C-alpha cells in the first residue's frame, strides 16, 4: 500500500476494533466495567495492582481473587500483542520487538537501555499516513490506529522484561517513553492521550512514569499541538522539522503543505510557554539535501532565544531511498552554525541501525 508522493492520509481506514482492555479505561471506568461483569468494584483496584504494579496479565497468579472471579475478570485482560520476532544489538541493551495485533496488523517497539535510563520507543499507529519520503514507515501507508491499551502494552512488555532481569544490566524500570515508533501520534489523538495518561498516572492507576520522561513526537499537526498544550500533561513535545524553509520542507515533510514552518514553530513556542517544557526540534541530516550551512544559519535564526533543543539525527538508511547521512565535516559545520546562534544542539546517538530499529527504519515486515 505505498502512497503517491506528497499524499497525506489523516483518517485511518475503518477496521474492527481490538478488544477492550483494562489499560483502555480510567479507574472509574474500570470499576464500572468490573461491576458490569457482576464483580465488586474493588476488584478493579486489585486487577489494576496486578497489571500496573506486578506487570502480570495472568489471572492464574492472582491469588487474592476467588477462582470464579479470576475467570470473569480475565475478560478485561485480553492478549492484544503477540510477539512475532525479537532482535537485539548493543550487547542486548537495544531490543526491537515485532508484534502482531489481533487483526494481523504488524507494529514494532524498541527498548533502549542506557547507563542512566531506559527508553521505550512505541508505535501509535500500524503504518503512517504522513508520507515523509525518507522514512520507511511513511512509505507503507496507514493501516490503522492503535488502541490505548495496544500502546500501553508495548511499555508494559518492556517493563516486564526489565523487572525480570532479561535485559543486561540487572533488574530495572522504564524511565522514558518516546512516541517515536510507527505512526503519527497526533493523528491518533484520543488513544494516544489515553496512553499517556496510563503511563503517567501513579500506580496502581497507571505505570507511574514521570511526565517529564514522556516525549510525543509529531510532524506538526498544528491544531493538535494546541490541544496537547491544554491537556495539563507536561510531556515533552518533539517536532520533526527537518528543514527551516517551506520550499524544502514541503517535499521532506508533506504536512508542511498544510501548515507552514512559521505556523508550526509558533505552535511549538506556544506549547513551550504553556508547559514550561523545552521543545525538541528533530532534524535528520541528509547529505546535500538539508545540511547546507545556510540552512543551519536559517534554522539558528528561527529558534534562537526560544525554549528549545535541536536534536540532529544522522539519516538512517531505508530501503529504496537514494539519500544518505551527511558528511562528517558538514555535520560539524551545521552544529557550529547553530552553536554560533546560542542554540542548544546535540547529535543523536542513534541506536539499533543494525537491526533496522533506528529512527525512520520501522517497517514491520515478517
Ligand atoms: N510521526 C512522528 C513520530 C515518528 S518519530 C514524527 O514524525 O515525529 C520518528 C523520528 O525519526 C521523526 O523525527 C522522523 O522524522 C525521524 N526519521 C524518519 N526517518 C528517518 C531516517 N531515515 N533517519 C533518521 N531519522 C528519521
From TrEMBL:
S-adenosyl-L-methionine binds at residues 183-184, 217, 240-242, 316. Specifically methylates position 2 of adenine 2503 in 23S rRNA and position 2 of adenine 37 in tRNAs. Its cofactor is [4Fe-4S] cluster. The lineage of its organism: Bacteria, Bacillati, Actinomycetota, Actinomycetes, Streptosporangiales. This is Probable dual-specificity RNA methyltransferase RlmN. Keywords: 4Fe-4S, Cytoplasm, Disulfide bond, Iron, Iron-sulfur, Metal-binding, Methyltransferase, rRNA processing, S-adenosyl-L-methionine, Transferase, tRNA processing. Reaction proceeds by a ping-pong mechanism involving intermediate methylation of a conserved cysteine residue. One of its GO terms (molecular function) is metal ion binding. It is found in: Cytoplasm. It is an enzyme of class 2 (transferase). Binds 1 [4Fe-4S] cluster. The cluster is coordinated with 3 cysteines and an exchangeable S-adenosyl-L-methionine. PANTHER family: 23S RRNA METHYLTRANSFERASE, RADICAL SAM CORE DOMAIN-CONTAINING PROTEIN. Its EC number is 2.1.1.192. PROSITE patterns: RADICAL_SAM. The active site is at 108 (proton acceptor), 359 (s-methylcysteine intermediate). It comes from Nonomuraea deserti. InterPro entries: Aldolase_TIM, Elp3/MiaA/NifB-like_rSAM, Methyltransferase_A, RlmN_N, RNA_MTrfase_RlmN, rRNA_lsu_MTrfase_RlmN/Cfr, rSAM, rSAM_sf. One of its GO terms (cellular component) is cytoplasm. Its main location: cytoplasm. GO terms for biological process: rRNA base methylation; tRNA methylation. Belongs to the radical SAM superfamily. RlmN family. SMART domains: Elp3. It holds the Pfam family RlmN_N.
